[in-house]
């Protein structure tokens, strides 16, 4: 079925012109990016200001001292000289291969024959107890390409949730969750806006998928950007209720607003230019009957009120309670929760009120990172409190620590790796460089929190926990 579409997807993937790698010019062994001066804060200037490295040179004495102490403490686990020479991909591989546990797959897919499946079916079948997808599985890139290109055959509004979302069905019966572009990439979160009243960003959903992949987490369902023709690809397939919300704006653009509990009126419409709109498409997870999910309240959830603070914002002993109770009292889950917050700190996402796991996998499984639309909104400010679980528990997973340490030491930097990954998307540049540079700064800040935990005299093995994940 649809084998032509699959082959053409593969062909397109191999087409190097999709990767505008010309943007990268080697200089001094490090990849640097030329971009116009006058953009943002001064970064490392070279050649009298003409060329600047994409990444800021973020270093911190506390972090450097921590590395020296750790290397002295255990030169095998913390060999930072070796780490500098190890390519990031090799580090990911080395960390992964230490774990011999294979993990279960969703039992409902056991009898699905692998051959003849569409890529989206292979993705669903391939969901593992320890990862949402295998990055080396060609079905994953294939599915991403297909979400960006396959003809649409149906559009539905997704019920529930606060903002408009559509369920898009493609002609191979795969489905994706659609979030539209609301404003240009230059527009940052307004300083007086609460995170819970801010619009979601389609490009944050795309960037989160790539960031998660660079981190070697594989906990975000694949997301693709796509430019939609609102008339032919959305309105044409909409039911009466949705179709009725389409209109032509005074500027002669096609707009629609759908129906939902917050931003679904003509004052908050999604408008095309004149009839096309960018959107993010997240691969659909298996239906409940194939992969039942469990929703967990984040213990470090924010208050979602402009008047109240959450417990953890006032007291710093929440972790004492959390770490003694299931599911965080044994196994991987506390480290997973802290990974979630590391991930959110990097993107600047304050909106992680809940997270989900697959019931079939029990408690010994990864946290799904769905709903990342509220990150990448502020490039200059870092929301330190997103790291509260890290600095209140003083725990970080060893593999996560080593990945961040590598990206701190370089020469590969998170900004460059994420930028390269994002170049593959159709709506590239997915985020502006200022947001990528912020990633490097945040890597340093996470490590500084770890350094401060160690300086408290806590045992290294209690702070940097090696659970082999
Ligand atoms: N890729 C996906 N496949 C299937 N369901 C998904 C996917 N991503 C998210 N969902 C589900 O869709 C629901 C709403 O998604 P999301 O959280 O992005 O919307 P929201 O409007 O921000 O909701 P809320 O306001 O509750 O945060 C969630 O319950 C989630 O379980
Ligand atoms: Mn949400």
UniProtKB/TrEMBL annotation:
Chief subcellular location: Golgi
Gene Ontology cellular-component terms listed: Golgi apparatus
Keyword entries, A-Z: ATP-binding, Disulfide bond, Glycoprotein, Golgi apparatus, Manganese, Metal-binding, Nucleotide-binding
Amino acids binding Mn(2+): 200, 371
GO molecular function: ATP binding; metal ion binding; phosphotransferase activity, alcohol group as acceptor
Highest taxon listed in the record's lineage: Eukaryota
Family: Belongs to the FAM20 family.
Pfam family, one: Fam20C
InterPro entries according to UniProt: FAM20 (IPR024869), FAM20_C (IPR009581)
Species the sequence originates in: Pinctada imbricata
Cofactors named for this entry: Mn(2+)
Protein name according to UniProt: FAM20 C-terminal domain-containing protein
């Amino acid at each position: 079925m649809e084998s032509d579409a699959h082959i053409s997807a593969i062909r397109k993937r191999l087409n190097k012109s999709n990767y505008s790698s010309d943007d990268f010019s080697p200089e001094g062994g490090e990849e640097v990016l030329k971009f116009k001066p006058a953009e943002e804060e001064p970064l490392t200037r070279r050649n009298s200001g003409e060329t600047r490295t994409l990444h800021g040179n973020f270093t911190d004495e506390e972090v450097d001292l921590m590395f020296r102490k750790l290397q002295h403490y255990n030169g095998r686990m913390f060999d930072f000289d070796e780490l500098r020479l190890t390519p990031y991909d090799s580090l990911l591989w080395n960390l992964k291969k230490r774990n011999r546990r294979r993990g279960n797959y969703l039992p409902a897919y056991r009898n699905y024959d692998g051959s003849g499946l569409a890529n989206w079916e292979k993705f669903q079948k391939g969901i593992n107890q320890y990862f949402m997808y295998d990055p080396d599985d060609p079905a994953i890139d294939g599915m991403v390409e297909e979400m960006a290109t396959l003809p649409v055959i149906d559009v539905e509004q997704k019920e529930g949730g606060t903002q408009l979302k559509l369920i898009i069905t493609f002609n191979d019966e795969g489905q994706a969750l659609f979030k539209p572009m609301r404003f240009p990439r230059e527009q940052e979160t307004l300083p007086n806006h609460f995170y819970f009243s801010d619009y979601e960003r389609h490009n944050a959903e795309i960037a989160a998928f790539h960031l998660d992949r660079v981190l070697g987490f594989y906990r975000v369902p694949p997301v693709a950007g796509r430019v939609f023709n609102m008339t032919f690809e959305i309105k044409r397939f909409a039911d009466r209720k949705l179709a009725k919300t389409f209109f032509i704006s005074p500027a002669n653009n096609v707009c629609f607003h759908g129906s939902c509990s917050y931003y679904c009126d003509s004052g908050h419409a999604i408008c095309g230019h004149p009839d096309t709109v960018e959107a993010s498409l997240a691969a659909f997870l298996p239906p409940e009957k194939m992969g039942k999910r469990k929703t967990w309240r984040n213990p470090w959830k924010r208050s979602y009120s402009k008047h109240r603070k959450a417990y953890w914002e006032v007291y710093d002993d929440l972790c004492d309670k959390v770490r003694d109770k299931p599911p965080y009292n044994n196994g991987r889950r506390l480290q997973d929760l802290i990974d979630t917050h590391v991930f959110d700190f990097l993107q600047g996402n304050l909106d992680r009120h809940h997270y989900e796991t697959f019931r079939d996998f029990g408690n010994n499984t990864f946290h799904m990172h769905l709903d990342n639309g509220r990150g990448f909104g502020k490039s200059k400010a870092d929301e330190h409190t997103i790291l509260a679980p890290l600095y209140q528990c003083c725990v970080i997973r060893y593999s996560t620590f080593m990945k961040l340490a590598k990206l701190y030491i370089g020469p590969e930097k998170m900004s460059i790796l994420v930028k390269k990954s994002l170049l593959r998307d159709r709506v590239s540049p997915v985020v502006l460089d200022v947001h990528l540079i912020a990633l490097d700064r945040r890597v340093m800040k996470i490590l500084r929190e770890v350094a401060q935990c160690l300086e408290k005299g806590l045992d290294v093995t209690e702070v940097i926990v090696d659970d082999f994940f």
